[in-house]
């Protein structure tokens, strides 16, 4: 028993570190941290860099984001609005929008089902035979609207009646924002409904990526509590880009107010993403009443967006730029064109190995895994396990024999350069 307890005690720090809890349970004082950094710089002869000038850094400390969202939507509503079966028809979008505005303004004839003191469940039936189920909630003297469900009632009478029963019998009291977060999956300010650009609300309902100003409730919490510095991580489609759009729009507003000195830029990977980003940030700034900007500020906005490649080019001196000609940058699209038109690569190899696979093998493993030497068929064992799962030794031999010489001619003889150009291999 002693051995088991001893083992568990020994493993505790490891478990805490793995779960990211170590620094919470074992916090380091500011004094300890500063002393450690001082000794580290001294032992490694690291020069201490000057702090960012206060006039450039003060806005980072004062940065805040006001989230003033009044409309929240449940999963049922989102499924109804964006779905393909029994869903909100395009021709009914304007009518539903007007119906919700009537609910906000309390200018309606509705059936009210009281749930508790501060929440009511209401259904609206209009002459259009459209109906919505929603709640009116007052929290901290602010009225919020929760959209639960909608339908073309005569066409979907059975579904409508079932939903009414579910919400009538199972609706729980809403006491705080956590209760709202539990129910809702999307939120936006009510001015979206009143905006003269009626496509704003349509884009939200139909999940359009263009001009969609809605946020998930987790995103609103993130923005409300945002502080620099911050690293945003998440899976594809999790809303990382939307967060950046809102944060940059808010930063640009600070810039326009004179709170930020110097230039601010938004870097993207490619031109297509650049245009989408520019459009989204512009929509946020133009349509949000919180940002009171005149038209001349929007003229300057475009200069804040640039691709990473163009930004790096802009930092090169004239002599340096001659080594990195813009038209000679070898990215994957360029590699694929050259690969498919090259007559020296056997047709059988092209049929067996796609340009995508060859590019991945060369840039990720053969050339890209180690700055000091290539991974080849002779040191295949050095390839990481996940690489071996994707690339067999025979595949590596074939690419090394037939594709790698073609790639190296592009770099060494034809004047192309890629992201590995300054690798010591060259």
The tally of beta strands, per DSSP, is 8
Helix fraction, binned, reads: 40-55%
The profile of the biggest β sheet is: 6 strands, mixed
- Secondary structure tally, helices: 22
Sequence of strands across the biggest β-sheet: 2-3-4-5-1-6
Q: C-alpha Rg, in Å?
A: 29 Å
Multimerization status: single chain
Contiguous low-pLDDT stretches (5 residues minimum) are: 1-11
Overall residue-averaged pLDDT value: 79
Roughly what fraction of the amino acids lie in strands?
5-15%
**Shape call:** globular
**What is the string of SSEs from the N terminus onward?**
HHHHEHHEEEEHHEHHHHEHHEHHHHHHHH
Query: What structural category do the secondary elements indicate?
Result: alpha/beta
How far apart are the termini? 60 Å
Nutshell version of this structure?
With 426 residues, this protein is an alpha/beta fold. Helix content is 50%, strand content 11%.
What does this structure look like?
By secondary structure, this protein is α/β, with parallel strands linked by helices. It has 22 helices and eight strands. Strand 4 (130-139) and strand 5 form a beta hairpin. Helix 12 crosses helix 13 (271-287). The longest helix is centred in the N-terminal third of the chain and has 17 residues, at 2-18.
Q: What secondary-structure arrangement, pairings included, does this model have?
A:
Elements: H1 2-18, H2 22-25, H3 30-44, H4 54-62, E1 71-74, H5 75-82, H6 93-105, E2 110-114, E3 119-125, E4 130-139, E5 142-152, H7 157-170, H8 177-183, E6 184-188, H9 191-194, H10 199-205, H11 217-224, H12 240-256, E7 266-268, H13 271-287, H14 295-301, E8 305-307, H15 308-314, H16 318-321, H17 332-341, H18 347-352, H19 355-366, H20 385-390, H21 393-402, H22 404-412
Helix pairs in contact: 12-13
